[in-house]
Amino acid sequence: MAANASDSEIPKQDDLSLKSVQQLRGLLKEKGLSTSGKKNVLIERRNAKVLQGDIDALIRTISELSENWNNKVKIQIRIERLSEYRMSYLQLRNRIISLLADEEIEDELHSWRELLDMIDKAVDAAHEYLNKESNLEDQSSKGSVHKSHKDSHQPSNLKLPRIELPKFNVLTGNALQTIEGFEVTGANYQPAVEMSQTQMDAKAVANASSLRDLHDTFINRTRALEALGEIPMSHGCMLLPMFETKLPSELLEKWELEFADTPEDEIDLELFFKFLNRQVVSKEAGERNLQNNS
User: Fold this and answer.
1) pLDDT confidence of residue 231
2) What digits encode the pLDDT tens for the residues 128-163?
3) What's the gap between Cα 7 and its chain centre?
4) In terms of C-beta density within 10 A (0-12 exposed, 13-18 middle, 19 or more buried), how is residue 66 classed?
5) Phi first, then psi: what are they for 180, rounded to 5°?
6) Angle, to 10 degrees, between the axis of helix 38-65 and the axis of helix 105-141?
7) pTM of the predicted model as reported, rounded to 2 decimal places
8) Span 173-196, mean pLDDT?
């Protein structure tokens, strides 16, 4: 998976150019790592969601500490941790972008910029607090009057920005139910990932009836588009990925293996429907044989 790439070799800038994305993909390919796949994108976005929760909690802690003086050391420690989180967040973003098609990159970048800007504002506000604290310490060491020294320990009016985290609507149905019981904390990060991977890797058991229904549903949807004046076969690049997500995992694996060496421009809806129909016919024949032998 792309998440195993060396962090030191991943671009760190906030705004990735197309050239940077291509270089990142080349690096992953050299290491034999995947540069595509919806499953990898989903897992990386779950990782990002957990990290966002940690960042939000850390910014709230800094905000609470900044309301009182004499918290200089605690805030310095948390600024360093927030900077590390920001770096990890950038690396996660870059790994996700490396898995996307070029036309999806700009929208993806936009969804990440808001939180990155808020992290930077929080760090700037925290540094402002530290500067005020340092100035007051200097005044005290130079023999400031008692009143000035007393007033310096009044609560600060510094307010850190309110955080509105970007929301990735990538989980629904069984996938959402799998991890929604986990509280968003660092301690639950690994258990949530492991449970999600177990759920996604589990092979669905499909019978002939369910496959036939799935096949007929796909056909009916394309006919409905034709009735609206659309030409579904010309939109295969959009429809095919959606249809693939509805396949049982065992069938999706067969589909990917069977056409692994087929050029992408030859893989279309017609080929997909022929493949699915063969699987339905094979499944129906197998079930009939079982009934005849029983």
Assistant:
1) 66
2) 888 887 777 767 666 544 544 455 555 566 677 777
3) 17
4) buried
5) -70, -15
6) 20
7) 0.36
8) 65
